[in-house]
Amino acid sequence: METSEYEKIVNACYTPLFRFAYSLTRRPAEAADLTQEAFSRLVANNGVLRDQAKARTWLFTTAYRAFLQTRRHEVRFPEVELLEVDNCLPISIPEMDVRLDSATALEALLKLEDVFRIPVTLFYLDQHSYQEIADILAVPMGTVMSRIARGKALLRDQLLDEPRPKVVRNKCGIL
Q1: How far apart are CA 18 and CA 34, in angstroms?
Q2: What is the average pLDDT across 88-100?
């Protein structure tokens, strides 16, 4: 389609298409966006229209489908003002002396038995693969995997014995 053909279609269809979009959205800015989107898709799909007489119908259909797509997106992902849902957000009261830091984690790691500490250290701190750890320790890879899993569980148990930050439920029941 040539530039002059596009200009004819725009001149003939812009106002009625904008009115249609405005009737759907009831907002001038959104109607202008829908109208622009329809014309943009017409340009992007250059070879779609073989019969120029059907341009008006194609544009109206395209604008309507774009409107439906936008509404579906708004329903799935609604925009909400933060102040409106502020009372439904979780309240967390951090206590500075309860924070987990690297020194605490290393201290807990050093308390583990060697059979668990060494594979965990090789995997997480030295970035070795399971196979490399199996070769280093001369044990099967399954043994390495189970020792790492067991070591993580023991670490978690040690670290959870200490007090954790308090999390208070709010009115909406969300943590």
Answers
A1: 8
A2: 60
CA distances 71 to 7, 32, 64, 81, 139, Å, are 30, 16, 11, 18, 58
Say if residue 99's pLDDT is above 60. no
> What is the rounded distance in angstroms from the CA atom of residue 113 to the CA atom of residue 17?
74
CB 72 within 8 A of CB 147: no
- Residue whose C-alpha is closest to residue 62's, from 26, 31, 37: 37
In CATH, what is the architecture of 93-168? Orthogonal Bundle (1.10)
Q: Quickly state the pLDDT bin for 76 (edges 50, 70, 90).
A: very high
Q: Which candidate, 108, 21, 103, places its Cα nearest to that of 66?
A: 21
User: In the chain, what percentage of residues exceed pLDDT 70?
Assistant: 85
Q: Tell how far CA 93 is from the center of its chain.
A: 26
Q: How far apart are CA 117 and CA 109, in angstroms?
A: 6
Considering the segment(s) 3-76 as one domain, its CATH architecture is Orthogonal Bundle (1.10)
